[in-house]
Design goal:
The protein is α+β, with helices and mostly antiparallel strands. Helix content is 63%, strand content 14%. A 4-stranded antiparallel sheet has the order 1-4-3-2.
Length: 252
């Protein structure tokens, strides 16, 4: 009987003045939210980078292909004149017509120019078309020969395409694309953070607080599992069982 009374007094004393226990030292580390957002953000950055590089290379190829087409179109126009000469015109007169046409072509095509150069020997002509890419331009050289039966004139056409404006637009597109990609990545990350906060982080923080209070001896009410992630529901159910066990143990 004495032992039962003593145990009852100890139990009452424990309820009225629970022993204060030092909180365990919590190791520092990244939260689940930070880890998931970092991984998701890295995936988005890599995806946007791959798309941006592919589109940038495609656009640059388009600029170069268009420049080659414009240059060769002008060269084909002027190169057809010596080919159509049937020895019924003087070679120098044909050369004069070609120079006049090249001047007209240059005036009517901003950013493009075609010049005509003559050489004294056939060996000085560049073989076929020679493509030279500069920092901001494209030059294509094409040899020609005019023969009227009595004399011949040899030389080459030089078509030049100014690409400074095209490259400037290309750089601006790269900048705009980078800004758009950054906006998309930040927007998606903010949405992901908000979604994780509502569906995962907040329920876990609430369950963590309830667990600490139950561990300190406070018999708090644990809400029933809500319609959330399966893992969160499992933790909530386990916490409900833990609380009920404490109530039963306390009632003994």
């Amino acid at each position: 009987m004495t032992e039962a009374v003593a145990m009852k007094r100890m139990k009452t004393l424990w309820k009225t003045s629970p022993v204060e226990m030092a909180a365990p030292r919590r190791p520092r580390g990244l939260s689940l939210q930070a880890i998931v957002v970092a991984i998701f953000g890295l995936m988005l950055v890599v995806l946007q980078l791959a798309i941006g590089v592919t589109e940038t290379v495609r656009q640059l190829d388009g600029i170069k292909s268009d420049a080659v087409y414009r240059a060769t179109a002008g060269l084909d126009l002027l190169a057809a004149i010596p080919t159509e000469n049937r020895n019924d015109r003087d070679a120098k007169a044909v050369l004069g017509i070609i120079r006049s046409l090249s001047d007209i072509y240059t005036r009517n095509h901003p950013g493009e120019s075609i010049s005509v150069e003559t050489v004294t020997a056939a060996g000085d002509q560049p073989p076929g078309d020679t493509v030279v890419w500069g920092d901001n331009d494209l030059r294509i050289l094409r040899a020609f020969a005019i023969d009227d039966g009595a004399a011949s004139v040899t030389g080459f056409f030089e078509a030049r395409i100014d690409l400074a404006a095209d490259y400037a637009r290309w750089y601006n597109d790269i900048r705009d694309r980078a800004q758009l990609a950054a906006f998309i990545v930040l927007s998606v990350l903010m949405l992901a953070v908000l979604l994780m906060r509502v569906t995962v982080v907040s329920p876990l923080e609430r369950l963590s607080g309830l667990t600490r209070r139950l561990a300190s001896g406070e018999l708090v009410e644990v809400p029933e599992p809500a319609d959330r992630a399966r893992e969160i529901c499992d933790l909530s159910e386990a916490l409900v069982v833990f609380r009920n066990n404490l109530v039963q143990k306390d009632a003994l």
